[in-house]
Design brief:
- This protein has about 80 residues and is of the alpha+beta class.
- It is about 20% helix and about 20% strand.
- The chain has helices at about 10, 60-70, and strands at about 35-40, 50-55, 75-80.
- It has a 3-stranded antiparallel beta sheet with strand order 2-1-3, with helices on one face.
- The radius of gyration is 13 Å and the shape is globular.
C-alpha cells in the first residue's frame, strides 16, 4: 500500500524537502513544528552537490546549525518553504 503524495525516490534524492504540515523539528525529543531547513553534507561520504536536510523549529535552529558547523557539515539554512535566511 502506498501513501498518497509520498514518493520514495523523492525522499532519497537528498534534495531539500518541501514544506509539509506534519514536518517536525529534527532535534531529539522535540515535536514542535519546523520552520527551517538546515542543509548539510558529509564530504567524506557525499558528493559535493549532495544536500541532506534537517528540519528545525525556531527554538532549535541555532543549536542544530552550531552542531553541524562545528563538524564542518553545514552548508545553508533556509526557510522550510525554501527561501534563504
Amino acid at each position: 500500500m502506498s501513501t498518497p503524495g509520498f514518493n520514495i525516490f523523492d525522499s532519497l534524492s537528498g534534495a531539500p524537502q518541501q514544506a509539509a504540515e506534519s514536518t517536525v523539528c529534527s532535534r531529539k525529543g522535540c515535536r514542535e513544528a519546523a520552520e527551517w531547513q538546515l542543509l548539510w553534507n558529509n564530504p567524506r561520504i557525499h558528493t559535493p552537490e549532495r544536500r541532506k536536510a534537517w528540519a528545525a523549529c525556531a527554538a532549535h535552529v541555532d543549536w542544530l546549525q552550531d552542531y553541524l558547523q562545528v563538524r564542518g557539515l553545514w552548508k545553508e539554512t533556509i526557510t522550510l518553504a525554501g527561501g534563504a535566511s
